[in-house]
Amino acid sequence: MDDVTDLTGDGGVIKKIVTRAKAGALAPSEDLPMVDVHYEGTLAETGEVFDTTHEDNSVFSFELGKGTVIQAWDIALKTMKVGEVAKITCKPEYAYGAAGSPPDIPPNATLIFEVELLSCRPRKGSSLGSASAERARLEELKKQREIAASTRYENTTTSMTSLANTVTHV
Fold first, then answer.
1. Which ranges carry the PPIase FKBP-type domain (predicted)?
2. pTM of the model
3. Are 68 and 1 a contacting pair, CB within 8 Å?
4. How many Cβ atoms sit within 10 Å of the Cβ of residue 86?
5. Which of 8, 22, 101, 115 lies 20 to 30 Å from 94, alpha-carbon distance?
6. What is the mean pLDDT of residues 6-26?
7. Largest Cα–Cα distance in the chain?
8. pLDDT, position 50
9. In this model, does residue 82 exceed pLDDT 60?
């Protein structure tokens, strides 16, 4: 099964699923527009990493659809589910365009991001912000993080089993 999708129809934003989310995982929506992600951004031309949250294990949070991130992210993250890891390739017109983002991103650069959607939640002050809704949100966030951790564990276990089988057959 091919997990590659042209999200814009013009090849401008291509999404390749690296790790699928568990069944029943939440997805960003009008009610859950706030997202938390881990990511690594590289220049397609050189493979050079220009930004990552992995070095300091930080989390990047933003609201979808508000123009606070490059257009490719707004497009791609709306199609993801919590626990999913995807490789997003974006042409310049969906990233930083002719201006680039000096000094790290040159003009007209095609970028590749590996993004993991950690959680999605309502914006602060939304109608979902009551105390009981907040408790429910925190429980759901905990559940989604457990699903994401379980997915990472299963992928690591599968990789280790495959590696062990390879080593024993050498």
1. 32-121
2. 0.74
3. no
4. 25
5. 22
6. 97
7. 60
8. 97
9. yes
Backbone φ, ψ for residue 102 (5° rounding) = -60, 150
Enumerate residues 6+ apart whose C-beta is below 8 A from 39.
Answer: 51, 52, 53, 60, 113, 114, 115, 116
pLDDT tier at 169, thresholds 50, 70, 90: low
Work out the pLDDT band at 126, boundaries 50, 70, 90: low
Rounded Cα–Cα distance for residues 71 and 12 (Å): 10
Tokens of 3: 């997990």
DSSP 36: E
Domain with residues 4-168, CATH architecture: Roll (3.10)
Tokens standing for 55? 């070095």
pLDDT(131) > 80: no
Q: Give the Cα separation of 84 and 26 in Å (integer).
A: 10
Instruction: Report the C-alpha gap between 157 and 16 in whole angstroms.
Output: 22
Measured between alpha carbons, how far is 111 from 66 in angstroms, rounded to an integer? 21
Query: In this structure, which long-range contacts are made by residues 65-73, counting pairs with CB atoms below 8 Å and at least 24 apart in sequence?
Result: 65/33, 70/94, 70/95, 70/96, 70/111, 71/13, 71/95, 72/12, 72/13, 72/111, 72/113, 73/113, 73/115
Distance of alpha carbon 156 from alpha carbon 152, whole angstroms: 6
